[in-house]
Amino acid sequence: MPSPRLRFFALVALAASLSPLGTSACTSTSDSKSDTGVGAIVFMKRVHTVADGQGVRINVSGGNGQVIDYERYEPGGSLALLTPPRADGKLVNLTAAFPQADLNGVDVSFDARQAVFSMKKDKDDRYHLYTAQLSEGENYEIHQLTAGDYDDINPIYLAGRRIAFVTNQMYTEMGTRSDEYEHARVVTQLATISVDGGDADRRLFSQNLSHTVSPFLRHDGKLGYSRWEHLGAVNDVKLFTANPDGTNMIAIAGEHGKPSNSLINVREYQPNVMIGVATTRNRTIHAGALIKIDARNQADPVCLDAKANQAGHACLDEEHVIYTVLTPDVPTMSTPSPAGRYREPTVLPDGRFLVSWADGPVNDLSEQSETPPDFGIYLYDAASGRNQLLYNDRATWDLGAVPVVARAEPPVIGDLAGRQDTSLPVRMGSIDVTQTSLEDKVSGGQFKDTPLRTALKDAVAVRIIEGFSSEAAKGVTMFGLTMHEGAAVLGEAPVYQDGSWLANVPPYIPVHVQPVDKFGMSIRSQGLWIQGVPGEDRRCVGCHESRTGQGVPRNGQNPTIAEQRQALNFVQAVGDRFELPWDKNETASKPYVQQILSAKCASCHNASTTTYYEVSRTDPGTGQTTPYKIPVLDLSDTKITAYYDQQVKEWNASYVSIFYPSAMEMGRVTVKGQVPKMWGVPGSARESQLIAKINVKAKDGSTAWPTPLHPEDKGTTLTDEERRVLILSMDLGGQYFARQNTGFVPFTSGNPVAPGTKY
């Protein structure tokens, strides 16, 4: 008797052999005369169920466990052209010459004569870019554009015969960026090629520490894209835009709240008005609710008129985006859906949308229950909220439908990257750090619920911090008991009397900034990575100024003081950048935290003087409960074992004492006893109780807290530099490891980075 899996596959195969069309759900209709208003569509067919010598294999979540992963491969996919796009249309397999292929992204050229797509020809290949002519008279001719030992996916056409896409190409001599939070997943970055030159004209954009995916074309010729933003507690997918040469990377939606964790599969259909998918970060197979994203400046009537001339108007307002969930019955989390889930909407000329839709719960549990979701191509009408079935092959996922119709080509934007020397730095700075639109409050030290715009008046410098991930730390997949990646201080630029600052930093790398006060503590830690290409000027008005207003220096139209005194140079070799590991540093001249705690603190705060509380973790698979004793305040280097982020590892008792309370995963561990104070708050020294206890004295003799300096009140002295090290440890995110103590041999001033090295 055949197994349940074989019986299931036989049913799927039978259904597919009877008809390429699936049945409609209660929210959809089927009509063989469906009219999309276009002559043809091109889309991808991707296999999810395979029968082989081992039986039946259903691959739903492979490579798609997170919302923007890309590694899922099953043979038998194809690029399909359907003319006209309805049940009785002619279906052409454009990639019939590659029967073991899989596809990962497709777009149609502005003149509608060509498609660009990503294809992996067989299991031994990588995803690369190809073009296919869409005319039978041209024999649907296919040309390969990219090659190499990396994956290129999600291509789109840009103006000026260029193609943007995402790639996991090795970016630095240390390797491809590897997202630390997800334990060394190789992440994707943006790149472009030309239609005519292919890899001969390949350019990589600046780096992010997590995935970049799903680029889309904007009305102004720029590209938009989804970016997984992970910086400490920030862990979501936002929308960004950039010029086609990689300059001016800025957020366009998702930074100031959204109805879901992630915004993906976005397409613009009016200037700054988009449709996309709202979903959670994992377990939904890239699928979710359809959402309208309106990022127009609502205060300017010109910006609300799609036909008006918007020149000179600040029409993008990412701070006040309006989100409208078009399919409210579809959850934006990973919970089972009563109305299926959507993927990859694209826009038809009449304003309706082509979508991929599958009925049922649509998450990776579908794989475990041997019922893979069935994505077909539908016509979605936002006015009625209904789907109309166009095509569905039950044996494949039918995804990424694009209308084959000519469209206007946006303007070509100037190409900075094509002209500049790659060794040039990026210039960063602010006109006036106190100009902010954020309503945050600041507490700790001299502040108590102080408005950010007031607290920023205390800024005396801006700290610039490089971010790096596990490709730079051999054998390390987590930098500590916090969700912060690796960090290196590039420098601290002084804030002058007019609030200005200016610095030159290395190109391509992700950085974030912290305005700091006279005590050396961050006033607010920026929660967004920023980066630039060589020669780019990334100066802003202030610390998140109004996105629709005009920023003016305090001294009128005159150059800022920072400009008059010129930018500080923070470009230096990797090994010369200041990193701060907790324990041990192979570079003798650089400090580490434990040596201070052992010399000045552990004699009073150790295993014999501390108390303990207990946490326990129950394994969801075996049901076995394991207890762990956590010291309240043991500042010695004694090794203890702790559970964190699904791993059991050994750490210094001091490190666990200080950071476990703030890093504790409620819901994954059970606490017995009273949780101690937040001795260390990753990213915020001023909120860390350890810093409040030792207190800090500025050069003018004032202290941050009205309490005695400690341990001076017990007869031991901490130097100003030792206090700075402890403050930096908190402000940088509480890393345990750094590049210098993980076996990585860094570049140093004696062994500098070669000119043009993108790091």
Account of the protein in words:
9% of the residues lie in helices and 32% in strands. By secondary structure, it is mainly beta. The protein starts with a helix and ends in a 28-residue tail after the last helix.
Major sheet summary line: 5 strands, mixed
End-to-end gap: 59 Å
Average pLDDT score: 86
Q: What's the total helix number?
A: 8
The unreliable regions are: 1-32, 747-759
Helix content: under 10%
Number of strands: 42
Instruction: Choose one word for the global shape.
Output: globular
Query: If strands are numbered along the chain, what order do they take across the biggest sheet?
Result: 1-28-27-26-25
Quaternary structure classification: single chain
Question: SSE layout and pairings?
Answer:
Elements: H1 4-18, E1 28-30, E2 41-47, E3 49-52, E4 55-58, E5 78-83, E6 90-93, E7 102-108, E8 114-120, E9 128-133, E10 142-144, E11 152-158, E12 162-167, E13 178-179, E14 185-186, E15 189-194, E16 198-204, E17 212-217, E18 223-231, E19 234-242, E20 250-253, E21 262-270, E22 273-279, E23 289-294, E24 322-325, E25 341-347, E26 353-358, H2 365-368, E27 376-381, E28 386-391, E29 396-403, E30 426-430, E31 441-444, E32 447-451, H3 452-455, E33 461-468, E34 486-494, E35 501-505, E36 511-516, H4 561-565, E37 568-569, H5 593-600, E38 612-618, E39 625-631, E40 639-644, E41 647-652, H6 653-663, E42 670-672, H7 689-694, H8 720-731
Parallel strand pairs: 1-28, 35-37
Antiparallel strand pairs: 2-5, 2-29, 3-4, 5-6, 7-8, 8-9, 9-10, 11-12, 12-15, 13-14, 15-16, 17-18, 18-19, 19-20, 21-22, 22-23, 23-24, 25-26, 26-27, 27-28, 30-35, 31-32, 33-34, 33-36, 38-39, 38-42, 40-41
